[in-house]
């Protein structure tokens, strides 16, 4: 099956051609037009600008995706598109374009949930080594922090979530205050690495050594855990963000010099440990499940290493896409669409976009 997929839920327009044979996924093309430079001026995504940029990019990107894959519309079996959740104006661009193309070329149309799309990035391997349901999935991005029980490739149950900010959003907001350009996740990751090395004097094994360091114990960086301690698998990243803003204000008011690397290390450690502890609890609750981790924040080097440790300790497998497939892209939408097609989930010409998630809470 050859799928042409579209993704336009936020600030990346993406079009991809993916071939699926015998449960193996081959990404023939995965074109991504990022709007990051445009939104960087404003320190975050401006929805109306995002919609307009999708409109400008999507036609040419479709020609490019087909040409790179070496196929034409007549080779395509199915058209797939992210229909929810996301910025509504941005989603509408992809949905409308995909609907028109499917109608013009008489192809079936498959709607995809963006979160399920992120999880499906783990399926994009050519050797068929993918997580098998039931498994636990973490989707951590700029807009979402959710832990899901994946009962089948199309049936997800939310078992944990953030009650306020998403983890990526919190990195972006705090990163902006300490001078890291939008989106701050990658810069934060690198600055934290510097901080861990500074705190421990170790180039390797610094994360494990960090909690024994003076910098970790120092009363200068008091930051709370975003893992809620109410027996749930939920988070509050807004609590961590507020504590960080107060701390940064205090440094400013007392004219004390802030060590940006040490601050980034402490912030990252608190965020990563919270995710690790909630995922460990989820894996203990579901003893036969492996773990998949995806979304933009799955690119975080400290999170990747820490979750490898957690799964190894529990004797489970960890599936994380390569960094190039962690962020928003249409290849992951094609992977999710394949399973929607298998389950008979298609859309007709009345398909609309929706800003909300299709995954329900347990
Ligand atoms: O999945 P994604 O591309 O878009 C959304 O669906 O939101 O995720 C973008 C988020 C941003 O908040 C960005 O700062 C974060 O992923 N991110 C990272 C890293 N790389 C990207 N966060 C932490 N560490 C990283 N290395
Ligand atoms: Zn995303």
List its traits.
362 residues, alpha/beta, Nucleotidyltransferase, domain 5, 2 domains, 6-stranded mixed sheet, 5-stranded mixed sheet, binds 5'-O-[(R)-(carboxyoxy)(hydroxy)phosphoryl]adenosine, binds zinc ion
Order of helices and strands: EEEHHEHEHEEEHHHHHHEHEHE
Large-scale geometry: globular
CATH architecture tag of the largest domain: 2-Layer Sandwich
Mean pLDDT value: 96
- The tally of helices reads 12
| Distinct ligand kinds | 5'-O-[(R)-(carboxyoxy)(hydroxy)phosphoryl]adenosine, zinc ion
- Largest beta sheet: what is the strand line-up? 10-9-6-7-8-11
Characterize the structure shown.
- This protein is α/β, with parallel strands linked by helices and 362 residues long.
- It has two domains: 2-124 and 325-361, ATPase, nucleotide binding domain (Nucleotidyltransferase, domain 5, 2-Layer Sandwich); 135-320, 2-Layer Sandwich (Nucleotidyltransferase, domain 5), CATH 3.30.420.
- It is 44% helix and 18% strand.
- It contains twelve helices and eleven strands.
- The chain has helices at residues 36-40, 47-69, 88-105, 114-120, 167-177, 185-200, 206-209, 214-217, 237-253, 260-285, 301-314, 330-342, and strands spanning 2-7, 12-21, 24-34, 78-84, 109-113, 135-140, 145-150, 156-161, 291-294, 318-319, 360-361.
- A six-stranded mixed β-sheet has the order 10-9-6-7-8-11, with helices on both faces.
- Strand 7 (145-150) and strand 8 form a beta hairpin.
- Helix 2 runs parallel beside helix 3 and helix 5 (167-177) runs parallel beside helix 9.
- The chain is globular, with a radius of gyration of 21 Å.
- The chain starts with a strand and ends with a strand.
